[in-house]
Design goal:
18 helices, 5-stranded parallel beta sheet, FAD/NAD(P)-binding domain, 3 domains, alpha/beta, Fumarate Reductase Iron-sulfur Protein, Chain B, domain 2
Length: 458
């Protein structure tokens, strides 16, 4: 490393956010600009640790020590080349990845870990500003035709890799714009959509074709291979008394509509899900629930309560989750900082209402029963499995005992030439795992089509 004692001289300074009083009034990104000089100092903290557990902890196998060293020595072109070697969407993961790598950082054993995610974001944004990111279409085409169904992180990563290998790739998306959950599920204050469009426009210039508003009815004979990457979209419901009352919505419906409104689309009054001047309860303590909290605050909610069935996590590593494992710790997101009453170990027993609308939650915590007044309930309890209608039914795809698509070790379904990747195959997971799945599937597809593959396995 450029400065093997950098971690002794420089303390961790994590990503800065815009002031709460300012950011809660708009949907602009909450993060403040990342400066190259700041990133150079933070990159100097990356140790010459011998065994980089950060690399082990990252699902895409990012070359973290190498590009940290490149940042410290000012070799930004080398840094972006190393970053792109393992990650197709670093500007996305640099904003929303939960940073599994940082919890595996060797420095984290007795100090604060390296700001890996922030350094990653600094690299990609500097690369765009410096003009390092340019379309690089493949020089040779194989004449093989591949359909990738779904344009979320798994689909885009898979399609990008297959396009690099020279195949003709068509990405099918049922929505009106590509991006999947990155566009419709993640609020603009975490990921502004111009960042996503910037990358997709590069993909297009490199030869990828996008078919939008596509109700997939693909005949396998029309393609040499098909990759199913449609995500895991069936939400977990809360089937308790009063569930049929009005004012109770799934998180993805709420977030999708909010994102559509932010980009200027008009929603009919009868379909509007709006938190303005309402008492809001978000059921579910994960990242999706946090996004709902931030959205409700921006819509002008009177108050926001977030409840979680599980106990409150520890603020430090519990003994059963030692380094370098990823620990289940209490997370306070930028949305929580903006205002939310968080409650743990709460079991919702019944929705109660007046005139057909929800007005109360009947809850229990331990032996204590209590009520929460509410005007709007958002269910953010995760997802169960892929939608079993549509392409899964049309292609007669086999499912495993969890309701996900069944594949072999080569990501291929029992139907020859049809592959699966991402949440459809793995189950609901993180964006960085979706990218990893897409890259692995692309390697397997390329090997299937060509007999061998020059793509990386990750």
């Amino acid at each position: 490393m450029g400065d093997p004692k950098g971690f002794l001289k420089v303390k961790r300074q994590a990503m800065q956010y815009r002031p709460v009083c300012e950011r809660v009034k708009d949907y602009k990104e909450v993060i403040a600009p990342v400066w190259a000089s700041h990133s150079k100092d933070q990159a100097s903290r990356c140790m010459d640790c011998g065994t980089p557990f950060c690399h082990w902890g990252c699902p895409v196998g990012n070359y973290i020590p190498e590009w940290n060293d490149a940042v410290f020595t000012g070799k930004w072109q080398k840094a972006i080349d190393l970053l792109h070697a393992a990650n197709n969407l670093p500007e996305i993961t640099g904003r929303i990845c939960p940073s599994l790598c940082e919890y595996a950082c060797v420095l984290g054993i007795n100090d604060d870990p390296v700001t890996i995610r922030e350094n990653e974001l600094a690299i990609i944004e500097h690369a765009f500003k410096a003009g390092f990111i340019k379309p690089r279409p493949p020089k040779i085409r194989t004449k093989k035709k591949v359909a990738v169904i779904g344009s979320g992180p798994a689909g885009l990563a898979c399609a990008d890799q297959l396009n690099k290998a020279g195949h003709n790739v068509i990405v099918f998306e049922k929505d009106d714009l590509p991006g999947g959950i990155m566009r419709y599920g993640i609020p603009d204050f975490k990921l502004k959509k111009s960042i996503l469009d910037r990358r997709i426009n590069i993909f297009k210039k490199e030869g990828m074709v996008f078919k939008l508003n596509s109700s997939v009815n693909i005949k396998p004979k029309g393609f040499d291979a098909i990759v199913l990457a449609g995500g895991c979209r069936v939400p977990r419901d809360l089937n308790i008394p009063g569930r049929d009352l009005k004012g109770i919505y799934f998180a993805m419906d709420y977030l999708t509509q909010s994102n559509m409104r932010v980009r200027g689309e008009k929603i009919a009054d009868k379909d509007l899900i709006d938190a303005k001047s309402k008492s809001v309860v978000v059921i579910g303590g994960g990242d999706t629930g946090s996004d709902c909290v931030g959205t409700a605050n921006r819509q002008g909610a009177k108050c926001v309560v977030q409840i979680e069935l599980l106990p409150q996590p520890s603020t430090c590593r519990p003994p059963n989750m030692p380094w370098p494992k990823y620990p289940l710790l209490l997370k306070t997101s930028s949305s929580h900082e903006e205002g939310a009453d968080r409650k743990w170990s709460v079991n919702t027993k019944e929705f109660a209402g007046e005139n057909g609308r929800v007005r109360k939650l009947m809850c229990v915590s331990g032996d204590n029963e209590f009520e929460i007044g509410v005007d709007l309930v958002i269910l953010a309890m995760g997802f169960l499995h892929p939608e079993k209608t549509g392409m899964i039914k049309e292609l007669d795809i086999q499912l495993d005992n969890r309701g996900n698509i069944r594949t072999d070790d080569n990501y291929m379904t029992p139907q020859k030439g049809i592959f699966a990747a991402g949440d459809m195959r793995r189950g609901q997971s993180l964006i960085v795992w979706a990218i990893s799945e897409g890259r692995c599937a692309a390697y397997c597809v390329d090997k299937y089509l060509m007999g061998s593959s020059g793509l990386p396995i990750l």
